[in-house]
Amino acid sequence: MGKRRQSRELVIQFLYLIEMNEGEVQDQLKLFWESHPTAEDVQSFTEDILKDTFDHKEAIDARLEKYSDNWTLSRMAVIDRNLLRMAASEILYSTTVPPKVAIDEAVEIAKRFGSEDSPNFINGILDRILKELNSDISQASLNQ
């Protein structure tokens, strides 16, 4: 498994953990790393994704709600919800990960950790976010 895939799987594990346990994120993260020792570059990439996900959680959740027809975030499976948050964070805020890679990675991780329907569900919502983002970029370039 590649280092970035490993990081993304750690992100999903941590996001799941934080939803199931009360406590400060930083305290939980410290305990998480104690129980999941890993290479420094894997830990760094994991923390970069987590930072963007937590820093932009409200905006990410608003977009997910917008594009998840007939689904509220609270009705989604915890794994699906957090895969969507992670990938949306990468699509919207990462300067080092191409959006298509973020989507492909989320779909592959969904095949491993989600339900049978998770990959298609996640792909559909993330694809809609990417289309909106590309449309916004096209509009902005036309207006310049």
Description:
This protein has one domain: N-utilizing Substance Protein B Homolog, Chain A (Orthogonal Bundle), CATH 1.10.940. The chain has helices spanning 3-20, 25-35, 40-55, 57-67, 78-93, 99-113, 118-142. The radius of gyration is 15 Å and the shape is globular. It contains seven helices and no strands. α1 (3-20) packs across α5 (78-93), α3 (40-55) packs across α5 (78-93) and α5 (78-93) packs parallel to α7. The chain has 144 residues and is an all-alpha fold. The mean pLDDT is 91. The N and C termini lie far apart (43 Å).
Question: What's this entry about, in short?
Answer:
With 144 residues, this protein is mostly helical. Helix content is 78%, strand content 0%. It has helices at residues 3-20, 25-35, 40-55, 57-67, 78-93, 99-113, 118-142.
CATH architecture: Orthogonal Bundle
**Percentage of residues in strands:** under 5%
Shape: globular
- Which structural class best describes the helix and strand composition? mainly alpha
Radius of gyration: 15 Å
Provide the succession of SSEs: HHHHHHH
Q: Count helical runs.
A: 7
Report the mean per-residue pLDDT as an integer. 91
**Name of the CATH class:** Mainly Alpha
| CATH third-level topology | N-utilizing Substance Protein B Homolog, Chain A
